[in-house]
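Trying the structure run again after the queue cleared.
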Amino acid sequence: MRAVNVATLKAKLSEYLRAAKTGESIRILDRRHEIALLSSVSVPEGVRLAQTWVKQGIAEWHGGKPHVKLLKPRKGPAMIADAVLEDRG
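Done. Tokens:
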């Protein structure tokens, strides 16, 4: 956990907000005494999962229920039956 004084926090606020957004906690000091803790807001697991799917391109989400993108069938000579047999080993 990083510690930063108020003057430095004010000068580099964007940097510290980005760090907090990624999950890092930052202690804020005033004359070497801890006065506050800067950290990210707790996000519900369902929201975190939806955000992960969007980043991976699996789903689209604009709030509400995520819309899962359908997987495109394989192109080329491989047939669905071949894919099933391949998965079964």
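The mean pLDDT is 84. Worth checking whether this holds up in the mutant runs.
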